[in-house]
Write a structure and sequence with these properties.
Structural class: alpha+beta
Distance between the termini: 39 Å
Largest sheet: 12 strands, mixed
Number of helices: 4
Number of strands: 14
Helix content: 10-25%
Shape: globular
Order of helices and strands: EEEHEEEEEEEEEHHEEH
Strand order of the largest sheet: 7-8-9-10-11-1-2-3-4-5-6-12
């Protein structure tokens, strides 16, 4: 377990009634055929008054840019989105999936039935306790601390009597570890206008995207009189949209190890 680092803050029950950011290191493996190949990202859980947003640092920056009337870079595709909104007072949890100009809200209705173990240990400065749960076709082990009286955690995980400071699945594909805690100013939400979908609709959208990952680019090409592609050095390069599609389709197939394994799409 990584040593937790903190920004000069008094850890009292009073401070947790305020607006807090919990920074987690997320490690995940997209191709489970390559056991030692992990991606490591910084993710942030912003929490205020039983509401929270969990997102990767780059998504948080994109939201901040959008809130300031900017034009953020948005993600594409339907795989590997880790953006989650929670309304804990009403037990509402949703994944936000952004593909180009469209955002989709996918309500998570799977109930987390935690089994709290008597096993305890010290993690950094916190007294922690072990808990297990099944979610997304995976078995998860979490460590939570009653020292931080917030029943939230990274990604969709919540509902324990204290903040979840570590959670990993039994296959070792996904791991979240708390590395920093600090105050923040506002719980800003730039993705309010989202199209509500379910897992069946998600499946349809993901398969449609897979069939033509560059549909928007193709449309722009058809509307343009002339298209010139350049590399990073300004050299003109050949533009083959069909090869681009094939390369992206291969990448989607190879890196198909979603966190919700029970909703894995078998791309052909």
């Amino acid at each position: 377990m990584k040593k937790l680092s903190f920004i000069f803050i008094v850890m009292t029950s009073f401070c947790f009634g305020q607006k807090m950011s919990f920074i987690y290191e997320m490690k995940y493996r997209l191709n489970n055929q390559i056991p030692d190949q992990y991606i490591t990202n910084t993710t942030i859980l912003d929490y205020a008054d039983n509401h929270s947003i969990f997102r990767e640092r780059m998504d948080r920056k994109a939201d901040s840019t959008r809130m300031n009337n900017g034009f953020p870079m948005l993600s594409s595709g339907f795989e590997n989105h880790f953006y989650v909104k929670k309304d804990l007072s009403n037990s509402k949890i949703s994944k936000i999936i952004t593909n180009g100009q469209f955002s989709y809200r996918l309500p998570i209705k799977e109930t987390l039935k935690w089994k709290i173990s008597s096993e305890k240990k010290k993690i950094g400065m916190y007294n922690s306790q072990k808990a297990m749960v099944t979610y997304g076709g995976r078995e998860w082990t979490a460590w939570f601390t009653g020292d931080i009286p917030i029943n939230d955690g990274p990604y969709i995980f919540n509902g324990l009597p204290g903040l979840i400071i570590s959670v990993t699945d039994s296959r070792g594909d996904y791991n979240f570890e708390l590395v920093q805690t600090k105050k923040f100013a506002n719980l800003f939400d730039a993705r309010l206008k989202s199209i509500v979908i379910d897992w069946n609709k998600y499946d349809q959208l993901a398969k449609s995207y897979y069939q033509n990952p560059n549909a928007e680019i193709e449309q722009k090409i058809r509307n343009a009189k002339k298209v010139v592609m350049q590399d990073a050095h300004g050299n003109v390069i050949d533009f083959d949209i069909r090869q681009m599609n094939k390369d992206q389709q291969e990448d989607i197939r190879k890196n198909n190890n979603p966190i919700e394994l029970n909703h894995k799409i078998e791309y052909q």
